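Pilot study result, target chain (138 residues):
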Amino acid sequence: MVGSSEAGAESWRGRYYRLEEVQKHNNSQSTWIILHHRIYDVTKFLDEHPGGEEVLREQAGGDATENFEDVGHSTDARTLSEDFIIGELHPDDRRKLQKPTETLITTTQSNSSSWSNWVIPAIAAIIVALMYRSYMSE
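Predicted structure:
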């Protein structure tokens, strides 16, 4: 989570924005992103972002939390980001950002035949070997 700053500098607390409003700010004239349910106006930071303007523009108007965390931003970057907080996502809209709980990776059932895991590649290998042998004998 983005670190907290001094209480006097948190004038954004209690200022809520709806998701629809944030989504409108997705261009170079007005670029807002969401990180941990906080709204950041990064318009003035586009040219200074070490990863390039495009990285922020791709996330503009939406939730960038996962991408922000995946990159592994430094403590300094997290502290710097606090300067761009303008408010929080309205509590009613927070559930719209939550990821589905079901996994996207499907696994094979345990009752599936294990022979197909090795027979098909073995047949393919034999065919390739026969083709190679035929090619080399000509």
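One observation from the pilot: The beta strands are 16-17, 26-27, 30-35, 38-41, 85-89. A full batch analysis is planned for the follow-on phase.
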